[in-house]
Structure formats: C-alpha cells, structure tokens
Design a protein that fits this description.
Length: 223
C-alpha cells in the first residue's frame, strides 16, 4: 500500500507539472498570436494610410531624439567651466561684459549651492533658489515660511515657485506677475537638443568688448 501511495503522489506531481507546462505553452501561443495580429493590422494601416503612418513615425522619432539629447546637470557644469576658461584666456580688454556677468553669476550661484536642476525629460531647467543647499536652519527651509524653496525636490520646488513665490521687496503679485517674475529672475538656463541655450547665447562674441569700440571714433574702427 505504501508503494502505491508513493507512486500516486509522484504521478499527481508529474501531472501537475505537465498541466502547468501546457498552460505556459498555451499562454505564449496566445501572446504570440496577439502580437502577430497586431503586426498584421499595423502593416494594413500603413499600406492604407501611408501619409498618416509617416507623420506618426516622424513624431515618434523626433520625440525620441529630443528626449535622448536632453542634457543633464553634469553637462551644464562642464559647459559652464569650459566657458569660464574661455573667458579667462581672453584679455580683459576684449571680454564681452554681458558674457562675463552671466558666467560669473552662474559660477557664484553654483559655488553657493543655489542652483537647482529639474530634468523634465524633454527639457532640463536650471533655476535659482534663495537658500544654499547645505542650509539646515529650520527657519530657512520651513515650507510654511518659504513654500517656493527647493528642499522639496527640484521639480516640485520649481512648480512651487510658479505657485507661491513672493519676493519680500515687492507688493503681492498676481499669478501672471509671479510667472513673469520667476521666468525673468529664477530661471538660469534651459537645456534642450544637447545644449544649454542661455549659456550659448551669453557666449556669442564673448571676445568682443562693445564698450571698448563705443569710445573709438568711426575712423578708428576697421571696416
């Protein structure tokens, strides 16, 4: 009796494993048939409406390229340091004053830990926080005193700036005034398509001092 019981248990286990294998095989067969049906339908739609298919493909490829080329924080730091070296190698009499002011402002805010980086997938936004990152005083990081602070995270802090930012030296701002204030005073740079646009714009003709040429007579300026 004991041998027959053991044989029965082994047979039941074997039957259970066989049933599970058959279920897995059936599942993958159905999954494969579903993918084949979707592929056939897609090919049929492409042949029926090639223009629409091309537009969808171009839109998907463009979105993928923009997402893949979105720069990150390390790229911003490397580009900022590279541009600061370019300005350092340029004689002070030839340096563009706007370029120097922009690069120095970014370097100071970076050294003070006030730059926040919010990567939105297609855009990388660099914005300025009022308080440095190492600040640990609760009076400075309290979300009720400073709801626009970046200590809630860079993306949420950026959203809070647009919602709650209120400079102390200005009267209460409306929603549109607050958005304009944030765009003009807190957004340091925007990265997209493999570059940071504000840095690149500031470094255009960085070795040409417009103030130097302003004091020269027209006859002294080369044609």
């Amino acid at each position: 009796m004991g041998g027959s019981d053991e044989l029965g248990r082994v047979s039941n286990k074997l039957l259970t494993h066989v049933c599970r294998m058959n279920s897995c095989v059936d599942y993958f067969k159905r999954l494969g048939n579903d993918y084949i049906a979707v592929f056939r339908d897609t090919v049929g739609d492409i042949t029926k409406r090639p223009g629409r298919a091309c537009l969808i493909f171009l839109a998907g490829a463009s979105a993928t390229a923009i997402y893949a080329s979105c720069p990150h924080e390390s790229a911003f730091n490397a580009q900022l340091l590279s541009y600061s070296v370019d300005l350092w190698d340029t004689p002070s009499d030839l340096q563009s004053r706007p370029a120097v002011a922009h690069i120095e402002s970014c370097l100071i805010r970076r050294s003070h830990g006030q730059l926040r980086h919010a990567n939105l997938g297609f855009l990388h936004v660099v914005w300025r926080d009022d308080r440095p990152r190492p600040c640990a005083l609760y009076s400075e990081i309290c979300p009720y005193n400073y709801p626009a602070g970046g200590f809630t995270g860079p993306i949420r802090g950026l959203i809070n700036c647009f919602l709650y930012d209120q400079p102390r030296d200005l009267p209460p701002l409306t929603a549109l005034q607050r958005i304009s204030h944030v765009l003009h005073n807190r957004i340091v740079d925007v990265g997209c398509l493999g570059r940071f646009w504000f840095l690149d714009a500031a470094m255009v003709d960085y070795d040409i001092n417009a103030e130097e040429w302003a004091y020269k007579s027209p006859a002294a300026v080369p044609a």
